[in-house]
Write a structure and sequence with these properties.
The chain has helices spanning 2-24, 37-42, 51-59, 63-69, 71-93, 106-122. The chain has 135 residues and is mostly helical.
């Protein structure tokens, strides 16, 4: 279990370091940020486009601005964060973990896939109100 704790601590430390870096360097105005390859090649927005800028806005506690950059990602972030925390705790503690387990039914997985693909298509329609979904 000691190795698992070390890995969990390393993941958390790297995550916090990444958040600090994004908080101190606004994407598009400095720092080292990779562009979205899909957007660079096609000119279209992928479901993740705007997520780095949204994360920067979240670190500045600008929730509305973060939502405008990538509404889908910001809407599901609390769910994913809690699920990741429970999964990490279950992985670290193994058999001793007594908390909730994250086990998604197949229909939720397919629904999520449909939502992501729909968001991907809708945010690339060049007409109002769909332009509001673009970063």
């Amino acid at each position: 279990m000691g190795g698992r704790i070390a890995v969990a601590v390393a993941v958390v430390v790297l995550g916090v370091a990444g958040l600090v870096y994004i908080a101190r360097n606004e994407p598009g105005k400095g720092g080292v940020f990779l562009p979205c390859v899909f957007h660079e090649v096609t000119g279209l927005h992928c479901p993740g486009c705007g997520m780095t800028r949204a994360t920067h806005e979240l670190t500045q506690l600008q929730f509305g601005a973060a939502f405008r950059k990538n509404p889908l990602a910001i809407a599901i972030l609390p769910i994913v964060g809690v699920a990741a925390a429970f999964s990490m705790a279950a992985w670290v503690l193994g058999e001793r973990y007594r908390g909730p387990r994250v086990r998604l039914p197949v229909w939720i997985t397919w629904t999520f896939l449909v939502v992501v693909v729909s968001f991907w298509v809708l945010r690339n329609i060049p007409a109002w109100p769909f332009t509001l979904l673009a970063p």
